[in-house]
Amino acid sequence: MTAATPKTARPRNLLDFQDWNPERLTAILDNADTMLQVLDRPVKKVPALQGLTICTAFFENSTRTRTSFELAARRMSADVMTFAAGASSVSKGESLRDTIEVLTQYKVDAYIVRHHASGAAHLVHQYSGKPVINAGDGRRAHPTQALLDAYTVRQEFGSLEGKTVAILGDIRHSRVARSNAELLPKLGARVVLCGPATLLPADLAALPGVTLTTDPVEAVRGAHAVMALRLQQERMSGGYLGSLQEYADTYQVNETLMAHAESGAIVLHPGPMNRDVEISTEAADGPRSRILKQVENGQAIRMSVLYHLLVGRD
Ligand code: ASP
């Protein structure tokens, strides 16, 4: 397996995109092409991470991110230690710091962390001294989701340059929206964030290449990709919405709304979907949908991220 390695300094962690320049981000997308080829082989395994131990430390539930990271690490021959907080001494009151200090004694070389608190992935790096990949921290960042979204759009249109991605839904509580708003403009795309005013934090308009609107038709007009986001009820403490039905009537991604997007526009969703709330079943399963493609690409992107962070490092 060969992978392009840009000459700029290599970040030690993937917590968000602050330390990542377009050159290195593009290299991750490019190398995911190679990883997809590996995944198409009869023997879907390469020795790149042989001898390394990777801990997936999930303090919050996950289906796609966790399974794809675990498979990605195994496909690259790493030993994988799975830590599920729900079945651990965290339920007996053990702190994040004590938990990570214990796990680090098993000679863990890198952590993949999901946590309900923003900034937890950064703390895991501090407590362990090991490279950390953020698999979603609170409402702050979910960088590998944004990378696989970017990859899926690039795969469809050949390039991200000049493309528009509209993201509709619960922007306020979404780490996926934040990470995409940080990443896509670095790669030449424009991002339109759309939702009811209560779920659309005005400060995001300050990000370069990002615009905000409460009007879904305006949001999707000229969009090449339209992403629907779930209402993150687990992060909502107040009354952000009149009712689910009212929300769906205005903001649901469906064929009627998609008629206002570019003719070849695709539909994305990071999952899990609440069908017929933020997305219609027709749009989720229709010809524009690339939702399962996102899942397939997620494994290749996560292999590429592991490669970039861990291979060839002392
Ligand atoms: N799976 C995504 C996340 O972990 C989106 C969601 O949960 O709605 O942020």
Automatic annotation (TrEMBL):
Key words, A-Z: Pyrimidine biosynthesis, Transferase
Annotated EC: 2.1.3.2
Superkingdom, natural source: Bacteria
Residues covered by the Aspartate/ornithine carbamoyltransferase Asp/Orn-binding domain: 161-309
Pathway(s) this gene product operates in, as recorded in its UniProt entry: Pyrimidine metabolism; UMP biosynthesis via de novo pathway; (S)-dihydroorotate from bicarbonate: step 2/3
Protein residues bound to carbamoyl phosphate: 64-65, 114, 142, 145, 271-272
Residues covered by the Aspartate/ornithine carbamoyltransferase carbamoyl-P binding domain: 12-155
InterPro entries: Asp/Orn_carbamoyltranf_P-bd, Asp/Orn_carbamoylTrfase, Asp/Orn_carbamoylTrfase_sf, Asp_carbamoyltransf, Asp_carbamoyltransf_Asp/Orn-bd
Substrates-to-products reaction catalysed: carbamoyl phosphate + L-aspartate = N-carbamoyl-L-aspartate + phosphate + H(+)
Gene3D superfamilies: Aspartate/ornithine carbamoyltransferase
Enzyme class: transferase
The UniProt record lists the keyword Membrane: no
GO molecular function, one term: aspartate carbamoyltransferase activity
Keyword Signal set for record: no
Binding site for L-aspartate: 92, 175, 230
Subunit structure of this chain's protein: Heterododecamer (2C3:3R2) of six catalytic PyrB chains organized as two trimers (C3), and six regulatory PyrI chains organized as three dimers (R2).
Biological function: Catalyzes the condensation of carbamoyl phosphate and aspartate to form carbamoyl aspartate and inorganic phosphate, the committed step in the de novo pyrimidine nucleotide biosynthesis pathway.
Stated family: Belongs to the aspartate/ornithine carbamoyltransferase superfamily. ATCase family.
UniProt name for this protein: Aspartate carbamoyltransferase
Organism for this UniProt entry: Deinococcus rufus
Gene it is expressed from: pyrB
